[in-house]
């Protein structure tokens, strides 16, 4: 879950809010077939093309435009889409997928095995410089394709029009789950290379919706129902996504919902109790315990966070219970593990010893071991406009009070924050969150903590999601062992061992809050509005009253 070139905002927040309210009105335009327009606000995505769709805004759009082999139900089970079957060989290093016949892209091109090979190759090729290519790193030939020594994905082949064969570089009995990520979408021939800007801004997909015009950067994205969709068609006629100022996007969403401009919205943390009191009795309050985690990412390679002792000092200094009660007013719960509780087969509470309870004495003890001294500066970065300011400030104050450090807060728009984290030599700590891309513990451990999840380019820029650059060969070995373990219970034990190593012994990241999400939804005009497995509104399933 996770930016792009910085947006140039030339008007103040009040002007933006007024303009946003003026453009939407709040009425739901009826369309042909009795549908309607569903409106919501987002901030500027990095990409809506699966070649590089990564943060929640971009993947939300990409999932409406494209459908792949699988989706994921809210409970974490796989939901077959274009996969009629998926079978591994006995060794777990080859998979065969049978693809649903006779579906097509919105330009009429067929969706077949070759279109999947085309899409996956487009993501993984070096020239695309994709931040999400690493999801395919287990496929044979990835290293050569992503490194630029080949333009073919040697591990992919088609047997006839609708049989996709995947050869892996090592066994992975959960590979089918990974194909639920948008990066594994099929692609039409017209897509061209990964940097085809006209396609990047107006992707031609095979999903329940299609683009209405091109992405109007920093302004809006418009989707209309794809009436030729090969699966269950959407009930909505249109989805309008207004792109809001990232400096106060959540506030603008909330104001937009109150004014009738938006049909779905997040809320600033301080406004949540009041919003709950007002909208829950009306049936417009949504609560969902989701498959994600909030955490702080220390930059493991650079001082002052380049020792486990320093990282543990920060973690022990945080009073999660106090912030949950005070800042979040009981609407969030402290996290003591990296995995979310929804991963029932693998989850264990209190994996992170330093997360269970604030311990000022231990915080000071570890700080002394690490050479952290009162007055030292600690950079603390976070993305603005998403309601994080209050709790980030509370954490900063606790760290200052307990350890005497000078915490320098650095708030940036989400896109700029992501780019800053990628820089070689990035230091300090950053606010982070992760929502599952697919329902396996590997989706937390491999992207966020494996050496391969760093994926540096020639200049040292981290292209993967392991922005903290944690690297431990033993941890990497445990992940490999887990993937090649066919028995789910035995695999869970290995994942438990890996999490204990990274989160407790090495304190690679610092878990903070479990991920409970709250939204406001216009249930007066729409039905069946829910948060899906990916924490997005289930646009393709929303009905109209």
Automatic annotation (TrEMBL):
SUPFAM superfamilies: Periplasmic binding protein-like II (SSF53850). Pfam families: SBP_bac_5. It comes from Streptomyces nondiastaticus. It is found in: Cell envelope. Belongs to the bacterial solute-binding protein 5 family. InterPro entries: Peptide/Ni-bd (IPR030678), SBP_5 (IPR039424), SBP_5_dom (IPR000914). This is ABC transporter substrate-binding protein. The lineage of its organism: Bacteria, Bacillati, Actinomycetota, Actinomycetes, Kitasatosporales. The keyword Signal applies. Keywords: Signal, Transport. Residues 78-454 form the Solute-binding protein family domain. Residues 1-22 form the signal peptide.
